[in-house]
Specification:
7 strands; alpha/beta; about 40% helix; 7 helices
């Protein structure tokens, strides 16, 4: 992988472990010569992962909607910054630039971005690895919910494998490197349409 998109909070969260994980991930990306692609802001976990990547000599590409740039949230030292018109364009551009996706802890925006990129994988629009960095078991409730979706028949068992999970950045990159694309030809029960 030459580039990874990181979805994460514009806040730092209450547990210092979240910032520590963002810093570790940023340093690891730089050490592995993997370009960081992210939302372009200088605040919260977003700022932490970018700062750590840049401090370790790595490359960081930000994608930021113009309305957020005008609020002076743009990181001032990025390798590249792409200013787009909308949140929809932001996600599409990040997806174009990245060869994999990692979600650090975050709020509704992080969850929405990760769920959309997983949906695109489920639909066969991409075959890139997607993972939850499960710092301090932050994503355990979501992983349990994905299990529930499966047991209730909304997700095929095989599709659960689209969501990688790891506790450390090192484990996450290792899982992403060995990821095999998952293809499910048809997940809609044809009886439902009859």
């Amino acid at each position: 992988m030459q580039s990874v998109c990181v979805f994460c909070g514009s806040s730092s969260g209450l547990d210092p472990a979240y910032v520590d994980a963002a810093n570790r991930l940023g340093r690891l990306l730089a050490e592995e010569h993997i370009t960081l692609v992210y939302g372009g802001a200088c605040v919260g976990l977003m700022g932490a992962v970018a700062d750590a990547t840049l401090a370790a000599g790595g490359k960081a590409i930000g994608v930021l909607p113009d309305f957020l740039r005008r609020k002076e949230l743009a990181h001032p030292r990025l390798t590249e910054i792409h200013v787009v018109n909308s949140m929809h364009e932001r996600k599409a551009r990040m997806a174009e630039l990245a060869e994999g996706f990692i979600a650090l802890p975050g709020g509704m925006g992080t969850l929405e971005e990760f769920c959309e990129i997983i949906t695109w994988a489920q639909l066969g629009l991409h075959t890139k690895p997607c993972g939850l960095l499960n710092v301090q078991s932050y994503y355990e409730p979501l992983l349990h919910f994905i299990d529930r979706m499966t047991t209730e028949g909304f997700i095929k068992e095989k599709q659960k494998g689209l969501v990688l999970s790891a506790e450390t950045p090192e484990e996450m990159l290792a899982a992403m490197r060995t990821f095999e694309p998952i293809r499910v030809e048809k997940w809609v029960d044809t009886r439902a349409r009859a």
